[in-house]
Amino acid sequence: MAQVVLKDLLKTYGNIDVVNRVSLTVEDGEFVALVGPSGCGKTTTLSLVAGLLPLTGGEIYIGERQVNDLDPKDRDIAMVFQNYALYPNKTVYKNLAFPLQMRKLSKPDIERKVMEAAKVLDIVHLLERKPRELSGGQQQRVALGRALVRDPRVFLMDEPLSNLDAKLRVQMRTEIKRFHQDLHATIIYVTHDQLEAVTMADKMAVMNGGVLQQYDSPAEVFAHPANTFVAGFVGSPAMSLIPLEVTGAETSLTSPDGWSLKLTPENARKASGATTPKVVLGVRHPTPRVHKAATPGAVPGRVYTVEPTGDVTFAQIYLGAHIVIVSLDPHFPIRPDEPVWVEFDQSRIHLFDGVTQQALTLA
Ligand SMILES: Nc1ncnc2c1ncn2[C@@H]1O[C@H](COP(=O)(O)OP(=O)(O)O)[C@@H](O)[C@H]1O
Ligand SMILES: [Mg+2]
Q1: Which tens digit of pLDDT belongs to each residue from 292-303?
Q2: CB under 6 Å to ligand 1: residues?
């Protein structure tokens, strides 16, 4: 397997930079998820790496080699797409063997490679079947197998699970993760599903509008989102983001709705780094405490909806004009429209610059 380096990758259509100077390094054997909302440039980025589209600018290295001008077939990559593109009239065996025949491998070599891949993916018993005789998950495994027999230096996968139903998707997620662990494969995996990225990848590259927003381990991205976009994209339900203003000598965050939150010295120092008094408060659902009576330091609100899920109950609470989502013990008595008081845990809130949208940190 190989390292992949993207340097200032640029793809322009007309005057729109759909991939806007993306730079990142995928280490040898690493599983990197390219994640972001629909249209943010994930497929375009992957197609550039594959060589299916010409670059507008930048450089791509696979291993030691700069591959900018190499044909896709000379880049030693294997792609797995959402629609598996299996040959419908060939058996599974022949689907796997075909790319090797094209490369003029000997018959015994082909047989050995096909059997190896079939064993890894547990499809030996399916080799004589045609694709239509397979379930969605089995077809997906054959598609992976067809990528695997080619001994690529890098696997490129574009939303490979999005055609599967929810349950199978979760199961295949585990299998692809296992596939990665067993093979120590270098994988770039495109998905719009942040949960897939968080659960599967060593690192996630969060994109928006063609621009790389943050590139780090899922744990780091979750704990320290670089800006409000990442904060709102990673985690479910999303982090609540409330625009406020810094006021007072003893620094507080004040809402135009009339409530305010006195900051701890540490958070006050963070807030003082903002370019203007505008600061966005970020709150993850498990962190606030909800009270049924007025409590010093807690912010008055009104319950909007209550959504039990079994393990936890989510409540949407209006603090003035803005909603904060909290998760509660399912036994906590709470009803829509009742008044509550929300107490933020200041060691776990996030603060963002209200203008640049970047995280406010110390140092
Ligand atoms: N051939 C093209 N011509 C013009 N715009 C394109 C072309 N291909 C993709 N785009 C635009 O580039 C953006 C990124 O597309 P894509 O990489 O497919 O996004 P994603 O895979 O993240 O959903 C989108 O706004 C899309 O409309
Ligand atoms: Mg896409």
Answers
A1: 999 999 999 999
A2: 13, 18, 36, 38-44
Return the structure tokens found at 340. 């509550």
Closest CA to 299 of 245, 268, 252, 340: 340
Atom of ligand 1 nearest to the CA of 38: 23
Query: pLDDT, tens digit, for every residue of 39-68?
Result: 999 999 999 999 999 999 999 999 999 999
The ligand 1 atom nearest the CA atom of 42: 22
Distance (angstroms) between ligand 1 centre and the Cα of 58 equals: 18
Query: For a substitution probing ligand 1, which of 44, 190, 211 has the most ligand atoms within 8 Å of its CB?
Result: 44
Q: Which of 10, 18, 82, 196 to mutate to test the pocket of ligand 1 (most atoms within 8 A of CB)?
A: 18
> In which residue are the tokens 């007072």 written?
248
3 state DSSP class of 301: strand
Which strands form 278-283's sheet, in the order they lie side by side? Answer: 260-262, 252-254, 240-247, 278-283, 350-353
Candidates 3.30.540.10, 3.30.70.20, 3.40.630.30, 2.40.50.140; correct CATH number of 237-353?
2.40.50.140
Q: How confident is the model at residue 168 (pLDDT cuts 50, 70, 90)?
A: confident
Fold of 4-232: Rossmann fold (3.40.50)
